[in-house]
Amino acid sequence: MKLSHYPKMLFSSHGGWDELRAQAPTPRRLMLKLVLPFSLLPALMICYAGLAHGQLYAPAAGLERWLAAAALFFVAELATVPLMAWTLQALAAGRKLAAGFDQCFLLAAGAAVPLWLSSLALLAPDPAFNLLGALLGLAASFALLYHGLPAILGLEEEVESQHFAYSALCAGAAAWALLLALALLPLFGGW
User: Fold this and answer.
1) Which of 57, 64, 83, 109 has the greatest number of beta carbons closer than 10 A?
2) Which pLDDT score is estimated for 9?
3) Do 175 and 145 meet the contact criterion of CB atoms below 8 Å apart?
4) How many CA atoms lie within 13 A of 2 on its CB side?
5) Which of 125, 149, 129, 147 shows the shortest CA–CA distance to 137?
6) Smallest Cα–Cα separation from 118: which of 141, 84, 99?
7) Rg of the chain's alpha carbons, rounded to an integer?
8) Residue 59 contacts by C-beta under 8 Å, 6 or more apart in sequence?
9) CA distances, 19 to each of 9, 40, 100, 106, 177 (Å)
10) Confidence of residue 133 (pLDDT cuts 50, 70, 90)
């Protein structure tokens, strides 16, 4: 999975996706080479935000709360990708589509990359910019899901593909909201 393919993958069901489907990396390989390293980025950015300008976001939270938020977020990210893959597989089964866990994991891991990269917005001590970065990451993730579903799962009928994509997008948005809530819990939950 090459980052240089992502711009094409955002707007096309074939650009970059066909090569990715042909490579067919295993979930274990994806977990070790993509999910694990990229999941570290938001955790590190949460630590950085807490150290560099934590008073701007959570004035009452000390360093230990920022570290707890980062650790909790990291663990939740590692669990979310397989959970999203399972959700995609269940959605496919509900539509009588033959989708293996490997294919669904590939799609879930690939679609998470913009969310991980959006954490770089925390470099700037500006909540509006941080929110914009998160929303752009979410939009890019949704675009990858939308275009990746036909490419990875072989959906040909456009209406069926759109319906499946919207269901997957709702599941992805719920997972994203849960991750954000988990990150905020140690900062504002009184741990």
Assistant:
1) 109
2) 81
3) no
4) 11
5) 129
6) 141
7) 17
8) none
9) 11, 26, 18, 12, 31
10) very high
Element housing 168 (H / E): helix 158-188
- DSSP secondary structure of 49-110: HHHHHHHHH-TT--HHHHHHHHHHHHHHHHHHHHHHHHHHHHHHHHTT----HHHHHHHHHH
> Distance between CA atoms of 105 and 83, rounded to whole angstroms?
9
- Distances in whole angstroms, Cα of residue 2 to Cα of each of 6, 33, 47, 71, 142: 7, 11, 27, 27, 18
pLDDT tens column, 155-181:
776 667 777 778 888 887 888 788 888
- Residues in Cβ contact with 36 at an 8 Å cutoff, skipping those fewer than 6 apart: 78
**pLDDT tens-digit profile of 101-116?**
999 999 999 999 999 9
Residues 136, 108: Cα–Cα separation, whole Å: 17
The residue with tokens 């711009």 is: 7
Which token pair is 188? Answer: 């504002």
Amino acid found at 135? L
Residue 1's pLDDT is 60
Q: Which two tokens stand for residue 3?
A: 């980052």
- Is residue 147 a contact partner of residue 17, using CB atoms and an 8 Å limit? yes
Q: What are phi and psi of 101, to 5 degrees?
A: -60, -40
- Candidates 71, 76, 100, 74; CA nearest to 88 is 100
The pLDDT score that the predictor gives to residue 3 is 66
